[in-house]
């Protein structure tokens, strides 16, 4: 039994000093429990038990995490067990802890495992791809719909999801104005996941916590390509985009320029103007889905739009309070 005692005392002595972010919770013969944390979101708990006939048999290992996906942990457990088998006949605990630490450090995209796999389910074209580059913590998206395409690089920060993900070099063969709107909207989706709303929180509302934004934001981009090229103008009911992308109307002042309103539906510019100019005025809603028509071209400035939004929220809150009073 001397070997195990020696190993335990070595683990107690070295583990927290040599493995950055490692906290030893318990270190006795019946159970070793260590937490390895890189960020709030990247944290794995490792529970280790000694098998009979240790060290000729590999350690019994269980991995737990509140943030990493179950599937990823199951896969990682198998890999860690393989690693322990490399050291049969020798102490294995520190090797295992170091291995898990290195995995967290070298796989920055592992914390988005489920999000990435859910996104891949939406990529059904033969040319579509979502490539992972763990070294630089980047994803490369390519999505096609016949002749239409969109490509983008997505950078996942180490402090995900507390810090916004970045979209670099979003390119498509829609018009450049349309592309700019796509970029503005994807940034807004990400911002809302990370920053608290501008309005005052409602009483008893839980404190705002940043949410993962990758799946939501990239899904938005995929949807733009998979859905919009076939979609009709919601006013005149004719197909908006030509089959040949080289015929897309590029002049943003042309009546035929395609506008994507806030809900995601499409209108010809002239159709949208005509609709907005017909009564009943005020509070115009999308003809198809009933959401408010909201489009960058008709908002005075982002700041004002946000102020308005906050104001509206405040008004809704007031109304809710009044309603409650008269119940
Ligand atoms: Zn139209
Ligand atoms: Zn709509």
From TrEMBL:
<feature type="domain" description="RWD">
    <location>
        <begin position="6"/>
        <end position="107"/>
    </location>
</feature>
<protein>
    <submittedName>
        <fullName>Uncharacterized protein LOC108740413</fullName>
    </submittedName>
</protein>
<dbReference type="InterPro" id="IPR006575">
    <property type="entry name" value="RWD_dom"/>
</dbReference>
<dbReference type="InterPro" id="IPR016135">
    <property type="entry name" value="UBQ-conjugating_enzyme/RWD"/>
</dbReference>
<keyword id="KW-0175">Coiled coil</keyword>
<dbReference type="Pfam" id="PF05773">
    <property type="entry name" value="RWD"/>
</dbReference>
<feature type="coiled-coil region">
    <location>
        <begin position="109"/>
        <end position="136"/>
    </location>
</feature>
């Amino acid at each position: 039994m001397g070997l195990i005692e020696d190993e335990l005392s070595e683990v107690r002595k070295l583990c927290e000093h040599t493995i950055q972010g490692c906290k030893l919770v318990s270190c006795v013969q019946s159970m070793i429990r260590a937490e390895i944390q890189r960020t709030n979101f990247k944290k794995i708990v490792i529970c280790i038990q000694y098998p009979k006939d240790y060290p000729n048999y590999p350690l019994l290992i269980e991995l737990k995490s509140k943030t990493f996906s179950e599937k990823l942990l199951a896969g990682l457990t198998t890999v860690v067990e393989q690693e322990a088998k490399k050291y049969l006949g020798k102490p294995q605990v520190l090797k295992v802890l170091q291995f898990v630490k290195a995995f967290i450090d070298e796989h920055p995209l592992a914390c988005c495992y489920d999000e990435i796999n859910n996104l891949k389910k939406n990529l059904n074209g033969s040319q579509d791809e979502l490539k992972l580059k763990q070294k630089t913590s980047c994803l490369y998206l390519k999505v096609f719909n016949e002749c239409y395409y969109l490509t983008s690089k997505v950078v996942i920060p180490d402090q995900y999801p507390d810090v916004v993900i970045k979209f670099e070099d979003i390119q498509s063969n829609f018009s450049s104005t349309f592309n700019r709107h796509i970029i503005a909207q994807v940034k807004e989706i990400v911002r809302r996941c990370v920053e608290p709303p501008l309005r005052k929180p409602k009483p008893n509302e839980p404190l705002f916590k940043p949410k993962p934004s990758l799946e939501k934001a990239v899904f938005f981009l995929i949807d733009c390509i998979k859905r919009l090229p076939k979609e009709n103008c919601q006013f005149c009911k004719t197909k908006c985009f030509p089959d040949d992308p080289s015929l897309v109307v590029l002049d943003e002042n042309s009546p035929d320029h395609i506008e994507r309103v806030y809900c995601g539906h499409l209108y010809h510019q002239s159709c949208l103007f005509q609709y907005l100019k017909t009564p009943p005025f005020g509070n115009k809603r999308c003809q198809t889905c009933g959401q408010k028509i909201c489009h960058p071209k008709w908002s005075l400035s982002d700041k004002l739009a946000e102020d308005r939004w906050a104001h509206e929220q405040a008004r809704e809150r007031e109304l809710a309070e009044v309603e409650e009073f008269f119940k």
